[in-house]
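Sequence in, structure out. Go.
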Amino acid sequence: MIVPPPGGLRAAVVALALALLTAAPAAARPPVPPEAAVTEPPAAAAASATVAGMVGTYNIYGNVGHRGDAGPWIDEEAARLHAVAPPGDWFSLALQEVCHNQGTALARATGMHGVFYDTGTTCANGERYGNVILTRRAPLRTYQYTFPTQIGGPERRGAVCAVFRGILGDVVTCSVHLESGSEEVRTAQAREFLDWEPGGRPLDDYAAVLIGGDFNAEPHQATMTPMYQVAEEADGPRDAWRFATHEDGRKLDYLFVLGSSRNAHWRTSRTAAVASPHSDHLIYVSRLDCTLCLV
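Output:
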């Protein structure tokens, strides 16, 4: 777990977003053992707060683009996120391609709590490499999942999720990163994620599950079929998306919501993609409304 904090295309997308409100790591490391998958944060996590706020996903390009550096650009990214929404208005932010020190620094700079998923590889500076889920409150518990299907290299892609207590049931928010090199592998990974039962419960048994991630696939590709079949995406229907999330004009990053409560929805008028000079991906965000979900 990351230490909690104390107490043409780019310009156009930035303007629109503010107006509305992948890359191999350096060296192999042993994967996180299954028994490390669940952590228990402080008991204060049980306090209640309304689930209504900004949710986002962002591939920060931490190793290939920054070689593990966690210098001034981290504060610049935090300022960019706070221009989208003030610190207390963020519910969660999923990060991919993160070196552990960068995740710690970004959690501190944003005033959020961070949980790290270790892919079993390291960044150029020797830091662990993986995904992070940032949340505005300390979670009740966390889960990690390594996809059974992998491409065969040292990196083990997967997901990390944080769980919060809700009146209608627990609310889960996750960061996911799928394989970039094989559509067959990443399609299998998407299905495996949806079949996963964190805490021994199917995903659709939770009141709401918020899924943010770099799926390395465009909406029309087979990888995304199972996701669109069971979940609502923040940019609308599969054939009517508006915001590219990669600098080359593709949509590769997604925000999905599913669950048993049926009353969690994206406010699509607040969906946006914000470009940054520090990554080849854009910061993809939307506002979640879940009127009866309290955590």
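Check: Residues 161 and 174 are 4 Å apart (CA to CA). The chain has a mean pLDDT of 85.
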